Amino acid sequence: MHRARLYRSTPFRLALAFGLLFILGFLISGFITYQYLKRELMGALDTSVTEMYAVTTSNYAPNDMEDLVAAIEAYGRHPTSDERVFSLVDPNGRRIAGNATVPRLPDGLASITAREIGLPDDTVFRVVSGPVGQNRLTVGRSLSETDDFEDIALFSFAWVAVLTIAFAAVGGVILAKRAQRRLDGVVETMVDISNGRMQARIPLSGRRDDIDLLSIQINDALERLSRLVESMRQVSADIAHDLKTPLNRLKMTIQDAMGRNERREPIEDLLADALGESDQINATFEALLRISQIEAGGRKVRFRPVDLLGLMNDIVEIYADV
To answer: Could you report the per-residue pLDDT of 61-73, keeping only the tens digit for each?
Structure first.
């Protein structure tokens, strides 16, 4: 029997469609989560830089730059100073203190690359700039730590997406094979029926799902079809049995008529008998056909109400003596 290819089967296509929808939903939710995480990390960095700027400017007193310069130099000697930017410049843009010379930036938060401030790197810094007396202070932190967190999150999402796609594909194939195996059972049963094995039935899984309900309906139809075919076989046997005797009598009558005809004897009575036998054969044949049609449900339109009480009274009267 020809089996449908798995990739052409409806269960596999449905499983594939649901798998793709699930993967698409996961990717969309992952993208939204990644963007939210990135925004939160950037917000936390901005808050940290703003606080660091406020702490640094707290060391400044009007007409007293020594504490501010000392604090900036101390921050510049910190082990993580390469991840931070401290720049105090005079109105002419000359560095007074710090580990970088930052060009004039607008007040507030801004992003700047390491090369723009004379550092040999491609790191991006998030900085806060503002006036301190006649001078200008810029404080910032690099985005390397934030980028590391983003890379970890992106790498994790990528691996989860790959595993999700793999599980969806494997699960879709397994579910499709199970559903296709049951559909193949339906096809095999119908092939058996078409080949004359009327006792074949679709196997049920017992889960009472939609395929089981469909299989039950098909099995019921096959059962009715089997009974109908068996009834037709029985009708054929009955016709052959009931017509055998009158056909033999008709044959003998015709043979007698042929013999009389050869002897020049009258054959009218034999012809009349032959006509009567043929009428009886036709009546018997029509009766058997009516019975078979009634059993098959094909003559119910000609049914009429019957007086069962009168019928039973007639039967009782006929068989009372017996």
So the answer is: 777 778 888 888 7
What predicted TM-score, i.e. pTM, was given to this entire model?
Answer: 0.51
Relative to beta strand 124-132, strand 108-113 is antiparallel
Q: Which residues touch 171 (CB under 8 Å, ≥6 apart)? A: 15, 19
Q: Looking at the chain, which runs of residues are DSSP E strands? A: 84-89, 95-98, 108-113, 124-132, 135-142
pLDDT single digits (tens) 49-63: 888 888 888 877 777
- With respect to CATH, is domain 29-148 assigned 3.30.1930? no
231: buried, middle or exposed (CB in 10 Å: 19+, 13-18, 0-12)? middle
CATH architecture of the domain 210-301 equals Orthogonal Bundle (1.10)
- Listing from the earlier edge strand, what are the strands of the sheet with 124-132? 95-98, 84-89, 135-142, 124-132, 108-113
